[in-house]
Amino acid sequence: MEAEDNVNDELNEMLPGFPEKQSMQPPPGYFEKFPDQVLNRWRNEESHSIPKKISLKRIIGAAAVIAGLCLGSWWYFTTSSSDQLNTISAVEAYQYVHENIDEFENLIEIRDADLIEEQLNLPKEEIEEFLFEETGGSDPEELF
Amino acid sequence: MTDEAILELIHHSETREDGYRLLVIKYQQRLYSIVRRKVVCHEDADDVLQNVFLKIFRHIDKFEMRSELFTWMYRIAGNEVINHHKQLSRIKTVELDKQDVKHADSYLNTDKLESSLESVVSHLPERQQMVFRMRYFDELSYRQIAQLLQVSEGALKASFHHAVKKIEEEFRAKQIL
């Protein structure tokens, strides 16, 4: 610090008699040994330093990649079985149904019953409209 | 040796350690004095001061000379003192080791005047207290304080003078002066 910057000098000018600051002294010889102490610690640190700092970000990133791979693998293997159905041709599907028609009979009956019930609830105008379209514009009463 | 010359040594690998040594020799006493006032005993001050210099060595390549070198080091010292106190509060030390107190008595030159001064200073308005501590106890220049607090040197001088005036009034009232 420059002489004119000395706080004790400044205080003496402002306030003569102001007590000079007491400095806090360490044990004798402390400052002679201190540079070697701190440099030895520094050398130790340098020799034991880890080449690449493993940060939390890297750990989270690695975990995300592994999780993504696991999820992707699980998705691939679970969807591949359902994808197999998409490879079956319509012919193969028809053949299967035909050969195993007994298994489908109940299903057909139920569906037909539902259909009939739905038809019974249809209003007359809708039935006539349907017949008009199906017969190409003929009067439905003429058909029956 | 100037700060620029020391930094020049540090920035070259073959002279780096010489630069570090010169840096320590130049600033160890000032930094010790600052740290010592803020901790209980010499052993704590030694520990903190070593950590301060190690941190300086680790980060000095990033120092861009936007402030004085000592101002930057002073900031690091302040942070290390705070870290030290945080560590102590985590350990939850309730009682001081009596041996530490004895050591503190040996090396700390406290007397009635200094303790009166501390008492008066602690009652100053916050800004005046901060400026007074940095100027009087830490012996920073007005330029350095301005860099740290981002305040003009003129305003700092005014704060310091007001603080000294108040201390004088208190001392006269207590017949210390």
Number of strands of chain A: 0
Helix share, percent of chain B: over 70%
Distance between the termini of chain A: 120 Å
Distance between the termini of chain B: 40 Å
Q: Work out the largest interface and the residue count of each chain.
A: A-B, 27 and 37 residues
Q: What would your notes on this structure say?
A:
The complex is a heterodimer of chains A (144) and B (177). Chain A has 144 residues and is an all-alpha fold. In chain A, 71% of the residues lie in helices and 0% in strands. Chain A contains 7 helices and no strands. Chain A has helices at residues 7-14, 30-47, 56-86, 90-99, 101-120, 124-134, 140-143. In chain A, helix 4 crosses helix 5 (101-120). With 177 residues, chain B is an all-alpha fold. Chain B contains 9 helices and no strands. Chain B is globular, with a radius of gyration of 18 Å. The interface between A and B is medium-sized, with 27 and 37 residues.
From the structure above, extract its key features:
heterodimer, A: 144 residues, mainly alpha, B: 177 residues
Could you write a compact summary of the structure shown?
Chain A contains 7 helices and no strands.
Topology of helices and strands:
The complex is a heterodimer of chains A (144) and B (177).
Chain A: H1 7-14, H2 30-47, H3 56-86, H4 90-99, H5 101-120, H6 124-134, H7 140-143
Helix pairs in contact in A: 4-5
Chain B: H1 3-10, H2 16-38, H3 42-59, H4 69-91, H5 98-107, H6 112-121, H7 126-137, H8 142-149, H9 153-173
Helix pairs in contact in B: 1-2, 2-3, 2-4, 3-4, 4-8, 6-9, 7-9
